[in-house]
Amino acid sequence: MSAPGLRLRPPAPGDFGWVIHRQMVLYAAEYGWTQEFEGLVAGIVADFVKGFDPAREAAWMAEIDGRIVGSVFLVKGDEDATAKLRLLYVEPEARGAGVGAALVEACIARARAVGYRRLTLWTNSILTAARRIYERRGFTLVEEERHHSFGQDLVGQYWALDLTGLGTDLEVP
Q: How far is CA 90 from CA 23, 98, 126, 151, in A?
């Protein structure tokens, strides 16, 4: 199921600040996360902006009726053949309408199109809706670790997707 009127677009001026703001507001309200999380998100966004490589990286803002309802980032990994999916989020009113799945699909399609062989991500076990999207798309859980971050006791998870075995039906937005 895909939200009617869903449009994925590249970030415009002000969008990076919006991503930091909305992620912090949402995760504080939903999970009680502290501003330590805001610092993490701000650092990821800053690194993306400062070192942006348009040949190997991308970001998408999801809009419905001109309103931002989510985003995701594709960034270079630690190895040449590996990319990372970062900072997926979807606004509460848009959840369950295919926004998250569309953002993940865009990330996967772009990663394949630019020649990455593997796509990885880090998340936390309490983010069950995102984890379901990753599982449905073929990501596998690689490792888990308990940690205390953002004012909470959490279980971090590392997921990976082998991009070499995917079909050719993906479109790059």
A: 9, 10, 15, 22
Chain segment 127-149, per-residue pLDDT in tens: 999 999 999 999 999 999 998 98
Amino acid making up residue 168: T
Q: 35-39, 52-56, 148-152, 157-161 — which is least confidently predicted?
A: 148-152
Are 71 and 117 in contact, with CB atoms under 8 Å apart? no
- What pLDDT score does 170 carry? 47
pTM of the model: 0.91
Q: Which of 70, 63, 106 is nearest to 88 (CA)?
A: 70
List all residues 6 or more positions away from 26 whose beta carbon is below 8 Å from its beta carbon.
Answer: 89, 91, 92
Residue 173 scores a pLDDT above 70? no
Distance between terminal CA atoms of the chain?
18
Q: Whole-angstrom Cα distance, residue 135 to residue 21?
A: 27
CA quadruple 125, 56, 15, 48: dihedral, nearest 10: 70
Contact call for residues 154 and 170 (beta carbons, < 8 A): no
Distance CA 106, CA 47 (A): 21
